[in-house]
Amino acid sequence: MTDQAPAPNTHVVQDAHVLSDKDVRQFLRKFFFLSNSPPPSEEFLDLFTDDGVWIFCDRRAQGRQEIQALRTSMWKDIPHRDHSPSKIFSHGNHDDDTELMILGTTSWEYHVKEAKGTQGDWAAHCKLHKEEDGTIKVKYYQIITDTGIHEKRGKKK
User: Fold this and answer.
1) What is the DSSP secondary structure assignment for residue 39, as one 8-state letter?
2) Model confidence over 9-51: pLDDT tens digits?
3) Cα 124 to Cα 88: distance, rounded to the nearest angstrom
4) Residue 83 CB contacts under 8 Å (≥ 6 apart), including other chains
5) Element spanning 149, H or E
6) Rounded Cα gap, residues 31 and 20, in angstroms
7) Starting from the edge strand earliest in sequence, which strands make up the sheet with 118-130, in order?
């Protein structure tokens, strides 16, 4: 993201020029920074609408309480992860960046003593909602990734 607004996330997102909305770019910086923080994170949950949907492969959560439970289960064996979005594409018109496809990589480490850190590719379909006061929230977020890499590398032998 090319503007110089304060960003909690240090990742550089390439091809971000396709996003015309500066507020969306700023929101995504915060979203990925907080997604690297283990639960509980009320600040992360506040990024979702009350009825927001979070899908990770075949697991679906709706509403902040279910999203929190799903995120907690996803962090159970992983003390650290680092999401690095590399490309973000808008599905909207030139002035509508509320529906996005995001490509990136994630690196993570496991609690399992013999397992080492690893990384994998992911994609996400994201629908944002702009509230009347201009606040941006996630309405829908679906993560697509190869879960087999987790099973192969995270299990103790």
Assistant:
1) S
2) 444 344 444 577 889 989 999 999 998 888 878 999 999 999 9
3) 9
4) 11, 32, 35, 36, 104, 105, 106, 122
5) helix 148-154
6) 18
7) 59-62, 48-56, 136-145, 118-130, 99-109, 80-90
Place of tokens 């999203």: 67
Contact predicate 11/87, CB 8 Å: no
Round to whole Å and give the CA distance between 117 and 78: 9
pLDDT tens per residue, range 124-151: 999 999 999 999 999 999 999 877 655 5
Contact at 8 Å (CB) between 40 and 113? no
Compute the residue count for the chain.
Answer: 157
| Amino acid at the residue 62 | Q
